[in-house]
Amino acid sequence: MEPENNTQIYKIFLLGISEDSNLQPFIFGLFLFMYLVTVLGNLVIILVTISDTQLHTPMYFFLSNLSFADIGFTSTSIPKMLVNIQIQSRVITSGGCITQVYFFTLFGVLDSLVLTVMAYDRFVAICHPLHYMVIMNLRFCGLLVLGSWVTAALYSLLQSLMTTRLSFCTDLKIPHFLCEFNQLILLACSDTFANAMVMYFAAVLLGAGPFVGILYSYVKIVSSINTISSAQGRYKAFSTCTSHLSVVFSFYLTILGVYFSSYISENSQSTARASVMYSVVTPMLNPFIYSLRNKGIMGALRRLFR
Question: Residue 276 and residue 282: Cα distance in Å, rounded?
Answer without folding.
Answer: 9
